[in-house]
Amino acid sequence: MTSCYQILKLHLRFTKILSFGFVNIVLFLALTSCALAQENNQMVRFAKIKVDPLKLVEYTAALKEQMEMAIRVEQGVLSYQAVADKSDPTNITILEIYADSAAYQTHILTPHFLKYKETVKDMVISLELVDLDVIGFVRKPDH
Amino acid sequence: MTSCYQILKLHLRFTKILSFGFVNIVLFLALTSCALAQENNQMVRFAKIKVDPLKLVEYTAALKEQMEMAIRVEQGVLSYQAVADKSDPTNITILEIYADSAAYQTHILTPHFLKYKETVKDMVISLELVDLDVIGFVRKPDH
To answer: How many interface pairs between A and B have CB atoms less than 8 angstroms apart?
Structure first.
């Protein structure tokens, strides 16, 4: 009985390992193909903006309002990360991620984006848009 | 006895409400200051790297290895986002976020970072580090 029980235990253990491995492989393939599909369609880019120093506070407020509204109401706007050079806060860079280029085309016709463009038209000295390919994004799970 | 018991119960209830409120206020203040402290302490920057076109594949592999290892083993490395200009993939930018400058100082002494620096020393044409202030980060909850 004891050896039978041990064989059963071993069998169960191997079944668990095998099924766990199988589930892992299926999950891995599913996640990989999802990630690749998403990566290929996403539109990622930098908006590099030089702001009039006298209008920096108003510009920043308009930018924040636009970003927060777009993330809230537009399905295809995935993330905005806006930063300013410490050495010169009038040099602003936004890392923008859209679900795809159609999402971006939709975005630039929204009332909040048009309002932003109108508000900041005399605040922005220059704007450079740089399309990007992702090499890798990694982050802590809670970050 | 009954009224005494009721007063005691009432007293206990108010004490609970008061202490609950007090605990909440303390928690709120602690969490707010934590969040602010975290924001203020985080070290955010761009690493702008020009890579030798002949060594781009090897460079990218070394960069990914470094990023993935750092995120996995270093508590203070919060995120890396590495991108390349579509028009010129030898222009690479990494948006790096560390918990604080101490976390960064620890990072640059780790074996994986030293290995990366040694591996890429003849692949990198130029490196510019730009310290940044965050204007705003917004993203979809599932992104």
So the answer is: 121
**B9 and B61, same domain (yes or no):** no
Q: Give the residue from chain A lying closest to B42, CA to CA.
A: A143
Cβ-defined contact of A136 to B80 (cutoff 8 Å): yes
Instruction: Kindly report whether the global pTM for this prediction surpasses the value 0.80.
Output: no
Domain containing B56: what range?
42-132
Which pLDDT tens digits describe chain A residue by residue (143 residues)?
A: 444 445 445 454 544 544 555 555 444 444 444 344 445 699 999 999 999 999 999 999 999 999 999 999 999 999 999 999 999 999 999 999 999 999 999 999 999 999 999 999 999 999 999 999 999 999 998 88
The CA distance from B56 to B68, in Å, is: 18
B97 and B51 in one domain? yes
* A126 in contact with chain B, both atoms CB, cutoff 8 A: no
A110 touches chain B (CB under 8 A): no
Residue B139 lies inside a defined structural domain of this protein: no
Would you list the DSSP string of A51-87? Answer: E-GGGHHHHHHHHHHHHHHHHHH-TTEEEEEEEEESS
Residue A128 belongs to domain with CATH number: 3.30.70.100
The token pair at A130 is 């740089």
How far does A112 lie from chain B, in Å, by closest CA? Answer: 16
Q: Is residue A140 part of a domain?
A: no
Q: Does A108 touch chain B (CB under 8 A)?
A: no
Residue found under tokens 């506070």: A57
